[in-house]
């Protein structure tokens, strides 16, 4: 049983998805070797071509799933272009998967500032030095930029760059998948209804 009080078998009976997600993430935190909060993030570009990469979930509540990035990166530009995204968690040690998709909103400046302040100093410098997703002529050029910003912010606080902030995926659907023998897996999908609550249905594997 996880710290949330839910067992792995309870997900069939769960009435809403976020408490269930908390239980599964708690289990993953105990069993996954690296980054239990890692998640595949899917976006589309201006031509409608899909793109996917791994990011780290940095927070969640009933409002949605939050991660942070450079808004001038490929994923930043793609999300800002459509304000929609999807994500997929896969915890191999538990044989579980969670998928979510929906519209995206930008976190508040206060939220972004609060999280940025928790990052290691080197990571805050990196947010200034890296022109994420754009061509890099050499490793030396990156190291030079890091050195320049390190010198610039040698003393005192390092402010958050305006191009660095967070996104919140506000899921319209969340699907939970649990491996079962002979590929007869358990699948449950929650969908937001018109009243703001959740409808739930089991799916064939």
**CATH T-level fold name:** Pnp Oxidase, Chain A
Number of domains: 1
- Overall pLDDT score: 92
Proper CATH architecture? Roll
Description of the structure:
The protein has 205 residues and is an alpha+beta fold. It has a single domain, classed as Roll (Pnp Oxidase, Chain A), CATH 2.30.110.10. The protein contains five helices and ten strands. Strands 1, 2, 3, 4, 5, 6, 7, 8, 9 and 10 form a ten-stranded antiparallel β-sheet that branches. A hairpin with a 5-residue loop joins strand 9 and strand 10. Helix 4 crosses helix 5.
How would you briefly describe this protein structure?
This protein has 205 residues and is an alpha+beta fold.
Task: Furnish the topology, listing elements before pairings.
Layout: H1 17-31, E1 38-44, E2 50-56, E3 59-61, E4 64-70, H2 74-82, E5 84-91, E6 96-106, H3 109-118, H4 121-129, H5 139-152, E7 164-169, E8 173-178, E9 186-192, E10 198-202
Antiparallel strand pairs: 1-2, 1-5, 3-4, 4-7, 5-6, 6-7, 6-8, 8-9, 9-10
């Amino acid at each position: 049983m996880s710290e949330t009080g839910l067992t792995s078998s309870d997900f069939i009976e769960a009435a809403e998805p976020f408490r269930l997600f908390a239980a599964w993430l708690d289990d993953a935190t105990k069993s996954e070797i690296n980054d239990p909060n890692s998640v595949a993030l899917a976006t589309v570009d201006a031509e409608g071509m899909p793109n996917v990469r791994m990011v780290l979930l940095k927070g969640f509540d009933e409002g949605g799933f939050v991660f942070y990035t450079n808004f001038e990166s490929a994923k930043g530009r793609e999300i800002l272009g459509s304000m929609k995204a999807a994500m997929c968690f896969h915890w191999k040690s538990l044989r579980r998967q969670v998928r979510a998709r929906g519209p995206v909103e930008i976190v508040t400046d206060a939220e972004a500032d609060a999280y940025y302040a928790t990052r290691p100093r080197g990571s805050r410098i990196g947010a200034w030095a890296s022109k994420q997703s754009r061509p890099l002529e050499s490793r030396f050029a990156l190291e030079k930029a890091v050195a320049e910003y390190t010198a610039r912010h040698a003393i005192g606080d390092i402010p958050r760059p305006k191009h660095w902030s967070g996104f919140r995926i506000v899921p319209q659907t969340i699907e939970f998948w649990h491996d079962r023998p002979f590929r007869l897996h358990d699948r449950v999908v929650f969908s937001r209804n018109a009243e703001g609550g959740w409808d739930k249905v089991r799916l064939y594997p």
